[in-house]
Amino acid sequence: MPFWPGRNGCGPRLPDPKPILFAGDPHGNFTPILRACAAHPPGTLILLGDCGCAAPLTQVLAPAIDVGWDVRWILGNHDTETEAAFDHLTGSPGDLGLRVGVIGGWRIAGLPGVFRPRVWQPDDGPPSFHTRDAFLARLRPGEVWRGGLPLWHRDTIFPEDVDHLAAQRFDVLVSHEAPSCHPHGFAVIDALAEHGGATLIVHGHHHQSYTATLPNGIAVRGLGLAEPWLLDWPPPPPPHDP
């Protein structure tokens, strides 16, 4: 299914021929993802969270990295369940969380993590804490981990995260949480993508493979467990003469 990112002039004039491969939550099973990488020339692999790495990510994906694949990732809720899971992922390069990376000519933004009631459950009212600093100021001493947020909240989405990304421009939004087209999704993700000028949202978390279109016209691709999906788009039209 083709997508053409770049609404409102946000996208490039010419696509990069290197593939962009998205992958749904591996939960420790990287075999389908490595097979997909082997089936295409090297490009960029983007993991949607819940990696479940039993070893450092660079080691797990070494067969793909060694032939030239660039790996990017965002945190999922299971990536903060144990120190080992957290360290095996975050100790590897490629963090796309709360960043806009230019990949294959497209600007791709990453919204890591999940909404948690203690901080912010968008459908249930205003947030209890807007920023991490405000949340940290209310923690008990025993809740602090490695000098900062508790491990369990290292993947929590704060309103400041959405504000930060909404102030930037991007073509594709990659998130762990789903937008409102999913029964357990959130309209705040729809709005974030629209503010950024995106034409596509790709998400994991719910382990469902589907396509949808939001009321605001943004395409959505949800990915299943360890499901690889190759971004495809038609070539843009030639530039008009002035």
Fill in the keyword field for this structure.
Purple Acid Phosphatase, chain A, domain 2, 242 residues, 17% strand, disordered C terminus, alpha/beta, 10 strands, 6-stranded mixed β-sheet, 4-stranded mixed β-sheet
Outline the secondary-structure elements.
Layout: E1 20-23, H1 31-38, E2 44-47, H2 57-60, H3 62-65, E3 70-73, H4 83-90, E4 100-103, E5 106-111, H5 132-136, H6 159-166, E6 172-175, H7 187-196, E7 200-203, E8 210-213, E9 219-222, E10 228-230
Parallel strand pairs: 1-2, 2-3, 5-6, 6-7, 7-9
Antiparallel strand pairs: 1-10, 4-5, 8-9
Helix pairs in contact: 6-7
Query: Would you give the CATH topology?
Result: Purple Acid Phosphatase, chain A, domain 2
CATH architectural category: 4-Layer Sandwich
How many distinct folded domains? 1
CATH superfamily descriptor: Metallo-dependent phosphatases
Distance between the termini: 33 Å
Percent of residues in beta strands? Answer: 15-25%
Q: Structural class, judged by helices and strands?
A: alpha/beta
Number of strands: 10
- Main CATH class: Alpha Beta
Work out the helicity level: 10-25%
Provide the residue-averaged pLDDT.
91
Low-confidence stretches: 1-14, 234-242
**Total count of helical runs of at least 4 residues:** 7
In words, what does this structure look like?
The structure is a single chain. The chain has 242 residues and is of the alpha/beta class. It has one domain (18-230): Purple Acid Phosphatase, chain A, domain 2, CATH 3.60.21. Helix content is 19%, strand content 17%. The strands form two sheets. It has a six-stranded mixed β-sheet, covered by helices on one side. Strands 3-2-1-10 form a four-stranded mixed β-sheet, with helices on one face. It is globular and about 50 Å long.
